[in-house]
Amino acid sequence: MKSLLNLTLQTRKAFYHILKTTPREELLKIPKGYNNNIWWNIAHIVSTQQALVYGLSGLPIQISQELKDKFKKGTVPDGSATDEEIEDVKGLLFSTIEKTLEDLENGLFQNFNEYPTSAGITLTNLEDAISFNLFHEGLHLGTIFALQKAVKL
């Protein structure tokens, strides 16, 4: 599982680079034919990792409940993002995974609530959740690449 989390840290570098280098108007723009934006996709992966790994394990999430609720599955962007929110998410991209690694090494993950995903995959344990999360983040990275092209049209 540590190797999966280390791989997740590597993919998070791509999300960080996008947040750091994309102008705010492009982060927030919802192109025609899309229902979300680059910003939402990045904040969403932070929220989802917490729900899958901590929530399904019955442990407290490591982000604010507001962030989790604002970017959870089924939500849509509200068209805004403060400088503080963007900076918070930049940090959370790494700190949440580093904390997961630490908590894994300290044996905090003892329970897991089985969960059937909308992708048709049932998560039965922590390793499933971490693996699925990496898959999920890859999907959203692909969506962001498409959004980057669409916002420039």
Write structural notes for this entry.
The chain has helices spanning 2-21, 24-28, 38-55, 65-71, 83-105, 126-151, and strands at residues 115-116, 122-123. The chain is an all-alpha fold. The protein has one domain (2-151): Four Helix Bundle (Hemerythrin (Met), subunit A) (Up-down Bundle). It has a two-stranded antiparallel sheet with strand order 1-2. The longest helix has 26 residues, at 126-151. It is globular, with a radius of gyration of 15 Å. The protein starts with a helix and ends with a helix. The mean pLDDT is 97.
Q: What is the strand arrangement across the widest sheet?
A: 1-2
| Total domains | 1
* N to C succession of SSEs: HHHHHEEH
CATH topology: Four Helix Bundle (Hemerythrin (Met), subunit A)
Number of helices: 6
Which value, in Å, is the CA radius of gyration?
A: 15 Å
List low-pLDDT spans. Answer: none
Strand content: under 5%
Essential attributes:
single chain, 153 residues, mainly alpha, Four Helix Bundle (Hemerythrin (Met), subunit A), two-stranded antiparallel ribbon, 6 helices, 2 strands
